[in-house]
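Q: What changes when zinc ion is included in the input?
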Amino acid sequence: MFFDKKILFLIGAVSIINSAAAAIIHTDDHVPSAAPSIKSAPVAAKFQSPIRIDANKSMEKDLPDIKFNYPKTLLFDLEFNGHTVQANVSEKDAAGKEQEASIELNGKEYELKQFHMHAPSEHVLGNKRYPLEWHFVHQADDGSRLVIGVFMDDGKETTAPYNGLIDQLASTMKKEEQHDFNKRSFGSCVLNPRALIPADQRCWRYDGSLTSAPYTPVYWCVVRAITTISPEDLETLFRAAHVNTRSTQELGDRDVSFDATIDPPKKTIAPTVILKHKAAAQRNKKQSKQRSRAKHPRKFSHRSTASQHLPQRSSIAAH
Ligand SMILES: [Zn+2]
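A: The predicted holo structure follows.
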């Protein structure tokens, strides 16, 4: 019962962080090395993160969608930076070609710098703190930041392509009993960055801060769709990092908005049409399976597990 023990450990460790505040927290997190001016003149945000998100109190709005200009593959350099396991966008891919990944919101472009994990989650949804939360840190030319938060809940399998990243950590740590939490590299891996963030990008948005020093302003988008992690992979991440969760901060008079819209292609399809499409798709699938079975009777001797690899749990249970 690995996780039960971990939870007890985590509860203790989180309360230590709460009482010791910033002294424990490493200062390099979230701050891309390409932003020296921000490092030398940090101005803490008025409003801090993370927060407890109350889905019932958030304001539903038709907010502009985030436009993802991510390539299909990106080479990431993996490291434990003294605070978290972080995947930095490598300047060049394996073939030496310059890499770029960005998002657009309200006509402003933000470049993806890195993503990293927090265990357990920093944002709390209602009363639920998830085992993990990933932060995708984007920065615009003017230094402003937009961070996308993605939760992971316990599951049978780890949502792809996070499993690829965790396999890389596991293979690098294979020969070690436990790493010593000094800064270290875990090598590099190629991932599809768009698949790391759920396709259903509806999210809670609010003005907050970095969750470690220098606590500068961040526009937060915390995605509602939940990804999952297997117990084995969760253990690997705990071996690679340690508890790095800041306690929740006062919301004050801030608003949390919930983006009630979905991606543009789905917006144009009326619900009845979606149902028709689904029914037609299922019919086609059935027919093609039947045809395939007739042609290749052996191929279907085992149950297909393809559905288990799809992004799981597109919505959260009420808490
Ligand atoms: Zn973070």
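Observations recorded in class: The pocket of zinc ion is lined by residues 30, 116, 118, 135, 211 (CB under 6 Å).
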